[in-house]
Amino acid sequence: MVMADRTLHAFNRILLTALFAVALVGTSQGQVKVAVSGTVDPGTQRNQPIIDFLIQEFGADVTYGNYANPADIPLGTELVVIGRAVSSGDYTGHKTAWDNLDIPVVCLTSYVAQNNRLQWHNGGVNTNMSFAGDETTVTAAGASVFGGAGQVDWWTANLRGWGVGTGANIVGEGRILARHTSNAERILVAQWNKGETSAGGAAFGSDRLLFNINQPGDNDPVQLPTTAAGRKALIDALKAFTPLEGGKLEPLPPGRSPVKVNGTILEINDCSGRRFFAAGMVDNIPNSGLQLSLYCHDEMRNQFVYHKEMGATGMRWNAFLRGRDLRWDEDGYVTGMCDNAVANLKDGCDLAHEYGIVVQIVLSTAHFLQYGHPGATAENVTRVNNNKLMFETLEGTQAYIDNVIIPICQGIGTHPGLFGYCIINEANGMYYPDDAPTGTWSDVKVRLSDFQKFVNRVASAIKTHQPGAILSVSGVASGIAQFNDAALINAAGHTNGLMDIHQIQFYPNNHGEAWSPFLHTPAQLAATYGGDLKPMICGEFPIEGIIDDGSGKFKGSEEFGLEEAYTRLWNNGHSGGFTWSNRVYENADPAKQAVIETAYTNFYNNYLFGMDLAHPLDWTFDGIIDVAELVILANAWLSTDPDEPGITTDPKYIEEPYYRNPAQFANWDGRCGLNGDYRVDLIDFAYFVEHWGCLGWAAKRDAGR
Q1: I need a surface site. Which of 202, 217, 291, 387 has the fewest CB within 10 A?
Q2: pLDDT tens string 92-121
Q3: Three-class SS string for 309-375?
Q4: Full-model pTM
Q5: Which architecture does CATH list for 33-246?
């Protein structure tokens, strides 16, 4: 029996209305209103890492001011955070008001919590504590919050200026969650529930959390925990004891970044949990350093065509090889880029997405400080000196951020074809020799410390204006610690200006096997050379594979071709590799091209098949399956393929009203016939719901609360 057409459409309307309701509920989220208290001038600058952290990790709505008197806290505030850069004496006269405050309070310094201020704990402050080794001991009371009791490393050893609470372990009815390892009386983290008393005997009007962080000097930015474990500990504590407990929820943007970090691997950002592996070539055409001013849409399309045909998933674009497409004023500060630079960059990303590939844009290289052909001409000297000014001065970096980075981020936006940015390629090539045991070769040098400041500031700007882009600096394995989280935070203080992945290069004629990602896992290289545990990709290696070219320079003990090289990267747990280069491929003879193509195709078929970025249900090509696709499905609901064989063979065709309804054929959309039975019905709908990004996101949100 065929249901009446009217009944089916009524059911359709109810079903889709319910689904829309689920979507709307799933995408609603309010920001927690947080008031950060500090000394307004110059405290805003010194407490900025706290503000950045709350926004980046939790999406908080932050207001900053001097709220030593709780009466000044803005109406509607849901959480108060007492910053590290404060004048602690300002709080003393308002102790009773702080005790009675019915808003949760997080205090980031014992200078305010000590016995002669708010009296959360007895004793004063112990300064200049050591950060060496496992400086923190999590107590039994803190085990459930921080994943276990015992000694842990939350801070790097080269910091100074830490002030922590000290006393006789008296915190009233509260509990000490972590102490300094060297002395059990030195309090690092403590917590009180609403109604519990402090060491001073006052009952708190709401929950309280003390988490001591560092301030190196009176005029320096504060320092949040500098190791990955330490940052996680702070996040976990805030989730456990404040309204930020759900953590930051990913927004549902018009477009979605295609790749995300999950521990030490990369994943496709579609809630499927599929591993992402970048396999492709370095785009170095043209190699004149005028990649954007000489950009050719058809040439770029051709590159993505042959990448896709051979099974590549990514491409590394040397878009700013020598910095010749930058523009400067008479003082040497960057004022912008060549005409159509941002439009050309976006066009490249659009083409990448069209072919189901992602592109990594290289923003600068060691060639920025190299004169190149024809040597130290007036033009080349000016270019190199201007680039040096950009790298090593705050004003130069800020001009670059304002006039290059922000326009690029805003012009491209959150884009499903953009993997992210390599902020500097081969930065070690521009170091002074005493900073670069790995080798240096540019004509003009800049200190490693200045590059660390530059990278931290640029990364912070990108994270702010283009969240989701994967960031890295490319170099050799022995130098990965130079751009660790702690090194970058220590350099310029931006807690969100961090690298998402390690990117290393390997050329067997230049690098020994100890640096090889083909012979070591990311964890092994990180342990050997002091790098943070992050995903790792091989930014450059020869397109022929690891082969002795007969030059007498080969440093390896074994040889293997391109397919085996990619297989080893995959099996070792790396997240991709780019070969040098598309120029080599395009200039090769047909036989060599065939070898390269076969290697990529075999690797794709053996390891990457089924892990394509372009999801078959992303009908609007915006990187997410959402309401836009739902509308397409609704328009085709209960339609029938006019080419269905049964239409011409079914004897009921003449007498069945269903078959005489032209709309059943007019609304047919072949994309929506997901189970291949010539009809869009509940089976197709069930498949669609399983892959719909809105529902996946809503489920993730609900699980986190």
Answers
A1: 217
A2: 889 999 999 999 999 998 889 988 899 999
A3: HHCCCEEEECCCCCCCCEEECCCCCEEEECCCHHHHHHHHHHHHHHCCCEEEEECCEHHHHCCCCCC
A4: 0.61
A5: 3-Layer(aba) Sandwich (3.40)
